[in-house]
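Please fill in the sequence for the structure shown.

STRUCTURE ENCODING:
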């Protein structure tokens, strides 16, 4: 079939097979209606739409063709609804040029190369599609293409669920990306080069190599997602990648829930980082990160571990019930820890380890070992060299500062100790203060809420009895650009 010029034909209930070239070509300004056809076993492609053509394609089966099942180029703008694109040898749907198609409720599966391939300046909308078990990428976006994917299931593709390169831009909303029970999808979202992605309200879980991996100078904004259960790390940033995380749940990563490498940069506000089988957060290789109003809880190692010249700024975070230290700092990581509450971490609230140098600021934190006895609340290794730029003041520390080298005992004068009994009272007052202060703070609405805890920390500079005055605490929090003037 070939429709051209301004054709408005209807093509219905045909079987088109064993064609040497494209089975159906739609060109010029034609706008056909193509319904319930079977296009299969061709030596070329299935359907090609190009020039300024449009067309509406309903409930067709496009399978086992030697080229792409659907190819769109130039300024084409068709609509595909309820089609099956299965087992095509050079991709399921391939788009180029400035095409702007809409795909609703289609199944794209078992295709070689990629289920969906976007390049050049194509800009489609995919809503409610199933993209599964393709023998390559689920979605591959290249060049300056922009793609919007909403309410899609992206499952068990042999490479990444979504891979973006070049300067491509992705919007992924309310989608599920999963490797399935066999972890057959290597990564959920993989970003390269200077590509960028907005990921909103999605579930990303059960991948072999990480749920989100960002490389090179890629960037992402992730809001209200659940990132869980991977054999690698939940989210990995490397190669100067930049990410903003707002109100996400990150849990059950095998290595870690969040890994920062190679001068990457992170802003984390209102996130839950919980139940990793390793450390909750690992920062190294001169990475830079800001954490505010976040909860780090129940991880099998330290809650947060920073090393290798990583820089970290933590404000108003709750760090609790981790199997290692709440916070482990070493090797010139230039930390700033303000107004956080740390309690019930098995190896103490904080370890300042070998090689740690200033500048360092640990100010106004509540650090408790309760209820475990015999564990130092704060441990400072003999190799710690604070210098003139070390500021450790106004902290409330259960049983005082422990294992303190003689040359650092001056720090004892600037911090206050408390007993186990006092610690329980302080902790209760802190949580009461947080519950009353919630209406004043940026709050998250997450896909999954693993606990009833508030993902905000404790402004210890404030009086316990004055929960209304949170204005200066909010100055620590990086604004969410989507919030505008809120």
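FILLED IN BY: designer on duty
SEQUENCE:
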């Amino acid at each position: 079939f070939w429709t051209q010029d301004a054709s408005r034909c209807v093509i219905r209930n045909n079987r088109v097979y064993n064609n040497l070239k494209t089975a159906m070509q739609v060109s010029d300004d034609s706008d056909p209606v193509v319904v319930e056809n079977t296009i299969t076993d061709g030596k070329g492609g299935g359907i090609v739409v190009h020039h300024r053509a449009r067309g509406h394609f309903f409930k067709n089966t496009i399978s086992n063709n030697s080229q792409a099942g659907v190819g769109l180029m130039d300024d084409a703008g068709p609509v595909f609804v309820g089609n099956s694109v299965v087992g095509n040898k050079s991709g399921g749907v391939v788009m180029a040029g400035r095409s702007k198609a809409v795909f609703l409720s289609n199944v794209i599966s078992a295709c070689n190369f990629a289920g969906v391939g976007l390049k050049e300046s194509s800009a489609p909308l995919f809503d409610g599609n199933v993209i599964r078990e393709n023998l390559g990428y689920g979605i591959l976006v290249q060049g300056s293409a922009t793609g919007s994917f909403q309410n899609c299931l992206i499952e068990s593709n042999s490479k990444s669920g979504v891979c973006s390169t070049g300067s491509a831009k992705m919007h992924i909303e309310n989608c599920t990306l999963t490797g399935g029970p066999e972890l057959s999808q290597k990564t959920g979202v993989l970003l390269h080069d200077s590509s960028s992605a907005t990921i909103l309200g999605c579930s990303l879980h059960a991948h072999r190599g990480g749920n989100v991996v960002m490389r090179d100078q890629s960037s992402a904004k992730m809001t209200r997602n659940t990132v869980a259960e991977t054999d690698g790390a939940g989210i990995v940033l490397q190669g100067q990648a930049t990410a903003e995380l707002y109100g996400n749940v990150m849990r059950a990563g095998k290595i870690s829930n969040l890994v920062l490498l190679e001068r990457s940069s992170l802003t984390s506000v209102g996130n839950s980082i919980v139940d990793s089988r390793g450390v909750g957060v690992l920062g190294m290789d001169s990475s830079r990160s800001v954490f505010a109003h976040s909860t780090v809880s129940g991880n099998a190692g330290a809650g947060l571990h920073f090393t290798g010249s990583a820089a970290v700024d933590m404000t108003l975070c709750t760090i609790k019930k981790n199997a290692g230290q709440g916070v482990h700092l070493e090797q010139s990581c230039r930390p700033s820890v303000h107004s956080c509450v740390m309690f019930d971490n098995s190896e103490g609230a904080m370890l300042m380890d070998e090689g740690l140098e200033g500048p360092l600021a640990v100010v106004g934190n509540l650090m408790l070992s309760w209820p475990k006895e015999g564990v130092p609340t704060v441990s400072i290794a003999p190799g710690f060299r604070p210098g003139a730029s070390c500021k450790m003041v106004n902290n409330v520390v259960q049983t005082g500062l422990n294992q303190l080298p003689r040359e650092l005992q001056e720090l004892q004068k600037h911090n206050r100790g408390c007993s186990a009994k006092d610690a329980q009272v302080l902790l209760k007052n802190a949580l009461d203060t947080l519950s009353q202060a919630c209406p004043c703070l940026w709050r998250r609405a997450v896909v999954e809420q693993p606990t009833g805890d508030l993902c905000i920390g404790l402004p210890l500079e404030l009086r316990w009895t004055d929960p209304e005055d949170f204005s200066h605490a909010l100055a620590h929090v990086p604004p969410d650009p989507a919030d505008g003037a809120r």
